[in-house]
TrEMBL record:
Coiled-coil annotated residue ranges, if any: none
Region Disordered: start-end pairs: 1-37
Designated name of the protein: RING-type domain-containing protein
Alphabetized InterPro entries for the sequence: SLX8, Znf_RING, Znf_RING/FYVE/PHD, Znf_RING_CS
Organism placement in taxonomy: Eukaryota, Viridiplantae, Streptophyta, Embryophyta, Tracheophyta
PROSITE patterns reported in the protein's UniProt record: ZF_RING_1, ZF_RING_2
The UniProt record lists the keyword Metal-binding: yes
GO-annotated biological processes: ubiquitin-dependent protein catabolic process
Pfam families hit by this protein: zf-RING_2
Molecular function via GO: SUMO binding; SUMO-ubiquitin ligase activity; ubiquitin protein ligase activity; zinc ion binding
Length: 103
């Protein structure tokens, strides 16, 4: 981006008026001084929609919903469908996944 100079009259300069580039220079100096270090972003935590606890042994259904392994196995033993979208799911359709943010 090109900087443009705005010309002011001598009388305006005496009254404290500044050119566009002078204002930008002051702003860039103060913004550098006032910038603060950004805190590191926390890793997201994923929760099981069945037990509402942090995921343990993350397992995905064929429709892509993620649950605790024990929770989804119990759920499909009672009713062979995904608890989130009700698509037909069997134990052989479950896929163990490994999320980097879980312990």
């Amino acid at each position: 981006m090109r900087k443009r100079k705005i010309h002011v009259n001598q009388s305006d300069e005496d009254n404290g008026a500044e050119t566009y580039t002078q204002k930008n220079k002051k702003h860039s100096r103060t913004s550098k001084r006032n910038s603060k270090a950004v805190a590191p972003v926390e890793e997201p935590k994923f929760y099981c929609p069945i037990c509402m606890c942090p995921l343990t042994e993350e397992t995905s259904t064929k429709c892509g919903h993620i649950f605790c392994n024990s929770c989804i196995k119990k759920a499909i033993s009672h009713q062979p469908s995904c608890p989130s979208c009700r698509k037909h799911v069997t134990a052989s359709d479950l896929i163990r996944i490994y999320l980097p943010t879980t312990e």
